[in-house]
Q: What sequence folds into this?
């Protein structure tokens, strides 16, 4: 079991940064779909989560091939690229996801409660409005570059691994 948290102070600076971060993580997951298929067949699991303060990478499975899967994820992260078509597809999916959260009273109530309790939190309405106002491909590219330049890493490795 390997879990790394790539923390960046950049994410919580604005609603636009949060939306760009969500877009980035979704495109990264999309890009990994085909290359990581063989790992899935070999019973290795991975998950990329857009956490509040950064990207959470979780990998688990048999230890002899786990570093290869983790390295694949890191390679795709460091050489991040996307096409305009993928960008459009992911932003449309995010619009639907955000809208679905907004129309459910229990999730909207949770969001409002957390907005009151947490110091620097952006509401789902802010994120949805930012996405509806439109994102540019250039803004995503510059955000990803800035994100990768301001990272703090926390990691946990459990299981049959040597130091």
A:
């Amino acid at each position: 079991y390997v879990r790394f948290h790539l923390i960046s102070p950049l994410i919580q600076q604005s609603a636009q940064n949060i939306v760009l971060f969500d877009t980035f993580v979704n495109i990264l997951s999309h890009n990994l779909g085909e290359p990581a298929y063989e790992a899935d067949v070999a019973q290795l699991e991975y998950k990329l989560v857009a956490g509040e303060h950064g990207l959470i990478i979780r990998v688990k499975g048999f230890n002899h091939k786990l570093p290869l899967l983790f390295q694949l994820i890191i390679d795709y992260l460091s050489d991040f690229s996307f096409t305009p078509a993928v960008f459009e597809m992911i932003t449309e999916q995010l619009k639907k996801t955000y809208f679905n959260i907004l129309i459910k009273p229990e999730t909207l109530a949770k969001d409002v409660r957390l907005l009151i309790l947490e110091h620097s939190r952006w509401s789902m309405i802010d994120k949805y409005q930012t996405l509806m106002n439109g994102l540019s491909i250039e803004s995503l590219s510059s955000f990803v570059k800035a994100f990768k330049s301001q990272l703090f890493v926390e990691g946990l490795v459990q299981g049959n691994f040597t130091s």
Remarks:
- The chain has one domain: 2-157.
- The mean pLDDT is 91.
- The two ends are 14 Å apart (CA to CA).
- The CA atoms of residues 38 and 44 lie 9 Å apart.
